[in-house]
Design goal:
The chain has 580 residues and is mostly helical. It has 19 helices and six strands. α10 packs across α14 (435-448).
Length: 580
């Protein structure tokens, strides 16, 4: 679809070029439209506006701005939050280490990639809104409402990404002249109210059901608005929306929201746009361009074997793997003892793949083996993970491999795009918001408002799905591949601190590797305590990987404004505290 738009623009550009040649010997050549530009009259039709809108959706994965520009936030949210380390080896994409260890400076390259990718999305969204102002007669009022709602939803998404990543950023809407006014917009105003306004407009104007499953609908806007409230601790406003979403919410295809029966299917390209998908970045393989597939995770496959064969990044941490340890009652170790003594997961760190190894036999949450690739356990349908042979540098990144956004061997070349340097360009959608996330945010709001029992019931919905024995990873004998022990919380929650801890830990388990963890820690106010303890623990396992790593409250909650942007707007943009 995006490819067709690009082809259309190219054809239009060639038409203008040859028209220019034809008129070059006449005075009227001065009135010919500029080469490679489409007139507003061409774009203001319904077809033109829909094409512009597709282009605004396309920026979500940051495909044109390096490895780290997309919205999955595997670096910005999961690596920085302790779900994983950069992985691979010390030299490959070494600037990402500065993000991981909070030794980042304004000149660190990945920051500018993220900034440019998200502002590209803002620009495209604003362009849709600007062209709508001169829409042609085939653009009905209903189309205008739907398209403007989607454009403002997308702009809200891009600004949400910018606000949570960089803090103080300039807010540019469709009224700003991109030729003369954009470089004058300062970053001296809080933009949460503008983000709220965009999602509220979307909620009020987008229909429940759309003509394509990947489009934002009314309930996706409601969920994103509620999430925006959560980031501002507006728990009552968030709860009111979550109550409506849980009771009445449905996908853009009209399916009532719900949890998929099997946890692993959330990350299966063959089960895209399910009832659990509230809003997802769409990916498609074998369309004629890998640009339409999922480029965000293309570096994050086992190294030297298995799916894609490259490049060994995004290795789950020891801390994350240990977090899936359960007690005899099938509950997580909320006191933090999962990183102590025998509670730590047995691993093959330092053990050659040719040397015998028996995996951990203790009780674990079954989501462990859908989230973390570990030696001796089935790696989807690729056979047992062989350990060190699939790890680029175990002394640097540890023994684990990512698993959530990995394609099945049976899907290679059908739900992956084999036309490029790797088959890692897959058709796996990335869920910006999924229903389990909604349930856990709703539980969090309930805790903060005193509804502890409501919170417990919401968390138990998530845990009940995880406990579905049909979804357990199985060995070749058909039996569970590990000692999976998981149960619901059966004792009433009467203490808000205990309930809060349980909800927050459930988010860690359920949403690991999905780009949320760091931003959760920041909004909970626990980042310094949690992350500095993480650096101390992981640093003991991987000497040298976390050199100089430290989270500083009052500084590291956000990344620095990229120096490239400061240089472009000297005296206009102000650097974040601690990075001057």
């Amino acid at each position: 679809m995006i490819t067709n738009v690009k082809k259309g623009l190219l054809a239009a550009a060639l038409t203008v070029f040859f028209t220019f040649i034809g008129f070059a010997c006449k005075d009227s050549f001065l009135s010919v439209a500029p080469t490679a530009q489409l007139a507003n009259s061409q774009l203001s039709t319904n077809a033109g506006i829909q094409s512009l809108l597709v282009g605004a959706y396309a920026s979500m994965n940051g495909r044109d701005f390096g490895w780290f520009g997309g919205s999955s936030n595997w670096l910005w949210g999961s690596v920085t939050g302790g779900d994983a380390n950069k992985g691979s080896n010390a030299g490959d994409q070494s600037t990402a280490v500065f993000i991981q260890n909070f030794t980042v400076t304004p000149s660190t390259g990945p920051g500018n990639d993220k900034w440019q990718a998200m502002y590209d999305g803002v620009s495209r969204s604003n362009n849709v809104l600007r062209i709508l102002g001169s829409a042609g007669p085939d653009v009905t009022d209903a189309i205008k409402k739907n398209v403007s709602g989607q454009a403002r939803f997308l702009r809200g998404h891009y600004y949400f990404e910018l606000r949570k990543t960089f803090g103080s950023v300039p807010f540019v809407d469709e009224s700003v002249d991109y030729g003369t006014g954009i470089d004058k917009v300062k970053n001296d105003k809080e933009i949460w109210p503008m983000i709220e306004a965009d999602f509220k407009y979307a909620y009020d104007n987008i229909p429940e059901v759309q003509d394509a499953p990947g489009r934002a609908n009314k309930w996706a806007a409601a969920a994103y608005l509620a999430k925006t409230y959560m980031f501002q601790k507006k728990f009552a406003e968030a709860k009111a929306l979550f109550d409506q979403i849980i009771a009445n919410g449905k996908t853009a295809s009209g399916k009532k929201y719900g949890l998929l029966p099997k946890f692993q299917d959330v990350f299966n390209a063959a089960v895209s746009n399910s009832e659990e998908s509230v809003f997802a970045i769409q990916a498609a393989a074998n369309t004629g361009s890998v640009a339409n597939a999922n480029p965000d995770f293309v570096l994050n496959f086992p190294y030297n074997g298995g799916p894609a064969g490259c490049c060994g990044f995004f290795q789950p941490s020891f801390d994350l793997a240990n977090s899936f340890r359960t007690n005899a009652n099938g509950l997580p170790l909320l006191d933090g003892s999962y990183n102590a003594g025998a509670n730590q997961l047995k691993t093959d760190q330092g053990i050659d793949s040719k040397t015998a190894f028996v995996p951990d036999a203790g009780p674990v949450d079954p989501r462990l083996d859908h989230s973390v690739g570990r030696r001796g356990l089935p790696y989807l349908d690729w056979g047992p993970h062989p350990g060190q042979d699939w790890i680029r540098d175990q002394t640097y990144g540890g023994p684990f491999a990512p698993k959530k956004f990995i394609y099945y061997k049976s899907q290679d070349k059908t739900l992956t795009d084999g036309s490029s340097w790797t088959d890692g360009y897959s058709a796996i959608n990335y869920n910006v918001i999924r229903y389990a996330d909604v349930l856990l945010m709703a539980a969090e709001a309930e805790v903060e408002l005193g509804g502890l029992e409501n919170a417990r019931k919401l968390v138990n919905q998530v845990r009940a799905r995880a406990a579905n024995a049909d979804s357990f990873v199985k060995g070749t004998d058909g039996k569970p591949a590990a000692n999976y022990v998981i149960n619901q919380y059966t004792t009433a929650w009467t203490d808000a601190t205990v309930a809060r801890n349980a909800v927050q830990f459930e988010r860690k388990l359920e949403l690991s590797g999905e780009g949320h963890r760091f931003f959760d820690l920041v909004r909970w106010g626990t980042a310094e305590k949690v992350l500095n303890a993480y650096f101390a623990y992981e640093g003991g396992k991987l000497p040298g990987t976390f050199t100089g790593a430290k989270f500083v409250t009052g500084k590291n909650e956000v990344m620095p404004i990229p120096q490239t942007q400061l240089d472009r707007q000297i005296g206009v943009l102000t650097q974040n505290k601690g990075y001057q």
